[in-house]
Amino acid sequence: MTRRIEKACVIGSGIMGGGIAALCASAGVKTLLLDIAPFDLKDEEKNDRKAKQRIVQAGLDAQLKAKPAAFMDKKHDLSLIELGNLTDDFDKIAECDIIFEVVVENLKIKQDLFARLEKVRKPGSIIASNTSGLPLEKMSEGRSDDFKKHFLILHFFNPVRYMKILECIAMPETSKEVCDFVSKWGEQTLGKGIVWGKDTPNFIGNRIGVELICEAFKLIEAGLASIPEADAMFAKPMGMPGTAIFGLADFVGNDTIDHIAHNSYELLTKDEYRDIYKTPSFFNTMMEKKMYGNKTKEAGGFYLSGRGADGKKFKKVIDIKTCQHVDFDNKATYPIVEATKELKSTAEKQKHLFKNNDFAKKLISSMCVYSANRIPEIANTLVDIDNGMKWGYAWECGPFEIWDNLGLKDSLAEIEKAGFTVPANVKRMVEKGGTTFYKVENGIKKFWDFASDSYKNIPYSPNMVFLSNIKADKAKTVLGNDACSLVDIGDGVFCFEFHTKMNALNNDVINTVPKAVEFVRKNGAGLVIGNEAGGMPPAFSAGGDLKFMLGLAKKGDFKGINDFIADVHNGMKMIKYSPFPVVAAPFGLALGGGCEVCLWSDKIVAHNELYMALVEVGAGLVPAGGGCYQMWRRISESNVTPTDWLTVFLAAFQTIAMPMPSMSAQEARNKGFLRAQDRIVFNRDYLIGDAKKEVLRMVEDGYVPPANLPVKVFGQDAMGALDANIPDMLAGYKIAPHISTVVRRVGYVISGGTAYKGEEISEDAMLTLEREMFVDCWKTEGSQKMAEHMATKGKPLFI
Amino acid sequence: MREAYIVEATRTPGCKRAKGLLAQTRPEDLLVTTLKATMERSKVPYEAVEDIMMGCAFPEAEQGINIGRIAALMAGFPITACGATVNRFCSSGLEALAISAFKIKAGMMEVAMGGGVESMSIVPMGGNLPRPHPEWAKKDYTVYMSMGITAENVARRYNVTREEQDYFGYHSHLKAADAQAKKLFTEIAPVDAYKFVKQADGSFKKETYKVDYDDGVMADANLEKMGKLRGAFSAPIPNVPNSGSVTAANSSQTTDGAATNLIMSKEACEKYGVKPKVKLVGYVVAGCKPDEMGVGPKYAIPLLFKKTGMTMDKIIKDGLIELNEAFASQGIHCARELGIADNKYWEFGSKDAFINVTGGAIALGHPLGCTGSKIFATLVNNMQRLGKKYGVESMCIGGGMGAAALFELCD
Lengths: 799, 411
Fold this sequence. Notes:
Helix content of chain A is about 45%, strand content about 15%. Chain A contains 33 helices and 26 strands. In chain A, helix 14 (about 335-340) runs antiparallel to helix 15 and helix 30 packs antiparallel against helix 31 (about 735-750). In chain B, helix 1 (about 25-40) crosses helix 2 (about 65-75) and helix 5 packs across helix 11 (about 330-335). The chains are: A alpha/beta, B alpha+beta.
């Protein structure tokens, strides 16, 4: 029988359960969300459905309010969610193909629930516990063989939508078919990164993560670094999120860290680092004082922030000797951190910290050694550990990748010198000639497998295409420069990749577009526009190169700006009218020019985490890479008549004049950026592969480029509407004066300039309007100031 | 010239736009309600009516074609009763009354009707298809300016403070709530209203119900809470006094409603044996700057007095004023300019009060084109109840005008 998840059930509507339900619904899966009926129901409420749903409703409401958003398209997603309580609706679980258990971490309660569940579940349905610590054996005690065959742990991290990891732990009885299915479903439908762990305490992510935190406790107690300095190093320079170590502990909750550490000490009796889990006395004092971190606002945690009596924000840090919060310079710089800013790659930065700072050296050594010693205890391969930390803790590199970055061979002596023992498996690897944990051969990424003492291919889904692997073979980059590359991704498909800072579209990128198009025309079947940028959030492209145009404007070279935009338009039209399909694969930030390049493509294959907007107005400019034209075209191409066009015009106008990036690809579709034919992909790693498949499918279907058709415009009446309303906004202090002149120009472009309503205007004429208004903006002092502010400070100047 | 006597005047309740009780009831049906009620209360046969002038500020869509004619036929008038739609924005209902009255005064008719209708729920303020003239809007947009901004301008230019505006609005509610409790709004014609209610199976059903009270009146109006609202049209601007002071609570409510009146010559009154309520003494309009249209009454009322030989003293002694509360800011400013700003003239419970004695549009609503006939019905009712000889009705008008009319109670 074909296994399919038509309906999921989530039992428990807390922050994790609610998050899992929101993700399933966002992914298009019908979801039944259940929680207990309140215990304290009054007699008159006992038959009141609404009263009985109070807890589950509150759980859903919390997800609806969650920031960052838990849902991707509230209207759509909510239509797939059904709420119920465990008293009245338990039998509905029989309709579900997968059941997530997300109730309180209490063995007895879970066992009782599973006993009850077994009686109603549909045969063959999967039961997954989201426990972060209870063993599978214990939870499934007393259950049937069939139950055990379909039982496993699927451990999501908070926030469920944004943390890529899905830790999967099976028991010996779990069927392989179920494991294989869950791997694929979790990866493709939910878009998660699958990590197979083992039934050991804290699995992978929290095992390594909490060891690091406990080691850091020891090192600050020894005085090797201050808390703020430690956090400054273990943030951006290490390729880790800004919360770093102590900020992370505060975020997660120090009580949780305490619980995990305590649990680890009790259970990990054979762990060579067991003593590290004995928390130091300053931490115990913090626990006595209930300094749990962000959740205890008054008591604080390692940090205490708030507003003083004077209304000013303050941030203090704990003094571990007194366990009191003391002032510290939040903007202080540390020489060791400053030095890393000069270095380009994360690898160089990590190496610099390791070589030049005792705290960093010991903490990195400890983490690397501990990780290597955990194989095969907690995971079969080092890839699983690296993925666990990258996807569960949002690290740029996992422990073994960091180790590779240090230079494995050189690091061994230093690690020993720092007082750590290099694990036997690593020593054996070096003896056998292994020089790095990872390497790429013929476009295939391999890892060192400790079990077989040899390199093995990393097992990827065939849907995944990684540019970084392909590019290891230099011949695959067929043309390019510092700003962009054209990469041969096989089967006649090429990928146009940007790789500037924030993937800004500079002159080099624009000048390469015609060459790339010409190359593919001669040598290929089609083109993908995509890249693999990292970061939180990553940037597909944050837009045009403001600094370049600002330089021209300051010199008064407006002809230069005009010519640059003319080049942009030529490039974009080549993308549209080239005789082969072009598929854009945006993700994360796709702003300004980064958005426009997608709008010109034949098709968009977007990651669901897509933050797309035409943000030029914030820099004092009108979108001029075809954004105005494309937006009007997309929104007006329906059956409405010019009589109704004010509404249509305002929809396009407001999208540009008051840009709010979409908070998901689904929202980008609702805003008109994505069309019906554009696709949304949940797994970021599938993006380029799926875009490539789309190219090949379009070729197979006999692709021909679109005709160059004129577009109907609203004409002069649009300006009447704007000029009758913008002064109200100015009088009401709702728009800044210069910005009002910029948005007026936006209106002029999308209404087709001086035209009668309903007239048709050619694409070229629309683009000319864009270009003229763009240059016109640059000629004003206001726009130059706004652009400079945006280029230097990264946010709009409201003048 | 002959006299024109108003023998009957009724109005529907004024109900809040979109969320109110009349939101889904079509404007024609609101109008039919008052047309019928006016005729039935007057006991004059339908056949007597020669013409019906109907005020409407946005005569389009459901209020379009010619609602004056359509509603008359729907109400059961014979085809001989003609009908027209009249638009002077906020004074349309008074303009309609005046047109009919002056036709009678001129001897061209014997029996005519005035009235007004506006469903702001169904036809939005500004209309469905606003199309400002591009070149004129660029040159001078003030004729298209939002009413809220004109009210802000009045507050800013003539120093009407937030506190004064809120206090004025608060008393509008106190007066209206008191009148409601005492059942003083006897001019109301209850409406057989309806709405479309979703059924359990997902289909919709038209459900009907009776509406006989103004649903925007707050019996529990709270001055402190009103003081916490943000500016509805403008944010506070640094160094601009009274900016951001016009709020939802000190502005008129957007409202659905209809009102109708029956006007007859002396001869017709005798013929049909009816006793008239008031006669129209005079009606004027006066222009002002569009961007502070709220000041209109300060020009219109003195002009009216000049033309009719009336004085404010006489009104204070033996009269009432319905000064349409489009916004508290313009109401207060006009009262100041007219020398009647003393709180005792309008505060709830004051024995000297003669302005908006049963509340105004802030509490009772301002259904644009209906308002002129709506507050007329209230004015006449209050004149009769309190035995006041004179009644003045005045309002400001979008685009920069004021209208004012003087009525005298019949013996």
